[in-house]
Amino acid sequence: MVIYPPKRPDKAINTLINALQPLGDRIQVIARKRIGWGTREKPYIYLVVEGEVSVLRLSDGLLLGSTCEPHVLGFTEMFWPIRSNQIRAETESTLIRVDAKQAVSEIERLNLWRAMAELSIYHTTYMVYRDLQIVNQRTPPVVYQYLQEMDQLPEEQKHRVNILSYIQERTGLSRSSILNVVSWLKKHKYIDYHRGGYQLRINNLPD
């Protein structure tokens, strides 16, 4: 069974970006660079206005989720002082860094709590969706689910995303267990991909 991700609240995201953008500093981030949420005394909100970024768990580097522009990150980390994750730029990206206290003041002034709540609910629901994909699941269904997710990526992204790395970063499964499933699928013509595990194409996955 394919599990579908929650719908992104684009209107809420755009509303928040339009309101908070004048308060922040524009920063350019090179691909693969990691960024923290600020300090305990001065947390930041990040507006993703160009590029693709991911959120990684600090304890083991597990990739919790990826997103592209436009997006807003940092509200959960602002209210929860334990720094358990960080941002990583997947491509060269442009972010706007906003002091969290200023962001909250502006949200209160403009009464944008609903937009903030919609975005926070989306992030929470996304974590539930992610857990449904991998918790207490056998390896083949987990791999199938992420292959389906990869198949929905834009063609440009498929050229630079490696199947093994994509699945391993998001699941913690060993490369050998992923490779066993992927190789079996290709042998039986359920999927195809170019040399090195790029440009995935799904023909039909088994039940």
Can you tell me about this structure?
With 207 residues, this protein is α+β, with helices and mostly antiparallel strands. It folds into 2 domains: 10-134, Jelly Rolls; 139-202, Arc Repressor Mutant, subunit A, CATH 1.10.10. Helix content is 43%, strand content 24%. The chain has 8 helices and 10 strands. The protein has helices at residues 10-20, 75-79, 100-110, 113-134, 139-151, 155-158, 163-171, 175-187; strands at 25-29, 34-35, 44-50, 52-57, 63-68, 71-73, 85-89, 93-99, 191-194, 198-202. A hairpin with a 3-residue loop joins strand 9 (191-194) and strand 10 (198-202).
Write the layout of secondary structure elements.
Blueprint: H1 10-20, E1 25-29, E2 34-35, E3 44-50, E4 52-57, E5 63-68, E6 71-73, H2 75-79, E7 85-89, E8 93-99, H3 100-110, H4 113-134, H5 139-151, H6 155-158, H7 163-171, H8 175-187, E9 191-194, E10 198-202
Antiparallel strand pairs: 1-8, 2-7, 3-6, 3-8, 4-5, 4-7, 9-10
Helix pairs in contact: 1-4, 5-7
